[in-house]
Specification:
By secondary structure, this protein is of the alpha+beta class. It has two domains: 181 residues, Alpha-Beta Plaits; 126 residues, no CATH class. Strands 1, 2, 3, 4, 5, 6, 7 and 8 form an eight-stranded mixed beta sheet that branches. Helix 8 packs across helix 9. The longest helix has 22 residues.
Length: 358
């Protein structure tokens, strides 16, 4: 029995010696600058995507190098369509992490200004966070980081819009005590993964062209609450052009209004891109600013096609998902109700403001 026990203990001892020692896990002050490309694969060729990653890698190396942080105190963690920059035990200057984030945005803006191909222009969203996390060695023998700080940085970043810089609570507290950042921290309360609420700050400074100081549109978690973006834009367009819509509710006109406003919304939410040409509009470009001419164009389509489209739209976008109460009138999909307006403003305030909907 003793031999068997010794054998088991001996095996365990050998495994322990081969594995990482607990003393090899070191707790460090980790400052994070996490960023990814907004809409990385949307409407872009593989070559354009590769170009963007190459350009992003170059500006990251340049920005980190310009910060003066020693190379042995920097980790660069690729995330597919972005990078996590980790600064290890770097305490000076006090805003080194934010400085790198701003430098990155400026360098990307400069690249975009010189780039003539729309597919190769890009925006990034950035989160800056800080925490005492663990420095570890990963399966490939490379240094890596684990802990709350890195997880939080990724979640905060996912809430931002292109050109935004979001600051985690520790970073926001650090900067709030400095003259340079007075009046430049907008407090936000965001819902991240699993319904967790987190208070962060958005860096705002209208004097910096490359920094998006606009309040971000609400982003919902996975199967989150709130109406879809497409329906929000569709409803906002109807409210913006409410007078026009109400004056064209005769059956032959109304049946053309639904596909017309649906295509207008699609062009705003999901623009088509043709390689080497740029955006291709679903709505005829020569009519896009003239609603009367546009309606006449859609009325020229066979009525049975318009009716079939409208029935499908109502079933899939309105009644199926349970949004019937957001519309009023017999048309079921052209007159936004007061409840619909309220939900639009609540869920998508940025879209509502852009359309002049209060």
């Amino acid at each position: 029995m003793g031999g068997a026990a010794d054998g088991v203990l001996g095996f365990r001892a050998r495994v322990h010696r081969r594995g990482p020692r607990m003393s090899s896990i070191e707790t460090v002050n980790a400052k994070y600058v996490f960023l990814d490309v907004v809409g990385y694969s949307k409407g872009r060729t593989i070559e354009a995507q590769s170009h963007i990653i190459h350009a992003l890698n170059r500006v990251i190396v340049e920005a980190v190098g310009a910060s003066g942080v020693p190379k042995d105190q920097v980790l660069l963690l690729p995330t597919g369509d972005g990078v996590g920059i980790v600064l290890i035990d770097v305490m000076r200057p006090y805003d080194v992490d934010v400085g790198i984030a701003l430098d990155l945005l400026a360098r990307i803006a400069a690249l975009n200004a010189e780039q003539t191909d729309r597919q190769r222009r890009f925006l990034v969203r950035v989160a800056v966070n800080e925490n005492s996390d663990n420095l570890v060695v990963d399966v490939n023998g490379h240094r890596n980081v684990t802990g709350l700080g890195i997880n939080q940085a990724q979640r905060i970043m996912s809430m931002a819009d292109g050109g935004n810089i979001f600051l985690g609570p520790v970073v926001a507290e650090r900067l709030s005590q400095r003259d340079t950042y007075q009046g430049k921290l907008r407090e936000l309360k965001l819902q991240v993964k699993h319904g967790v609420m987190i208070r962060v700050c958005q860096l705002v400074d209208p004097s910096i062209p490359s920094l998006n100081s606009e309040e971000p549109a609400p982003l919902h978690d996975e199967q989150g609450e709130g109406i879809p973006e497409f329906l929000a834009v569709y409803m906002a367009l109807l409210l913006k052009h409410n007078v026009f819509v109400r004056s064209h509710l005769a059956p032959r006109q109304a049946v053309a209004l639904v596909p017309m406003f649906s295509m207008m919304a699609s062009d705003l939410v999901d623009p088509l891109e043709k390689p080497g040409v740029g955006p291709v509009h679903r709505v005829p470009a020569e009519h896009k600013d003239d609603l009367a001419a546009l309606l006449e164009y859609y009325q020229g389509i066979d009525v049975w096609v318009l009716e079939a489209f409208t029935r499908f739209f109502v079933a899939s976008q309105v009644e199926g998902p349970g949004y019937r109460s957001f519309f009023e009138g017999k048309e079921k999909s052209l007159l936004v109700s007061e409840e619909g307006r309220r939900v639009l403003v609540r869920d998508w305030p940025k879209i509502a403001r852009s359309m002049g909907v209060g």
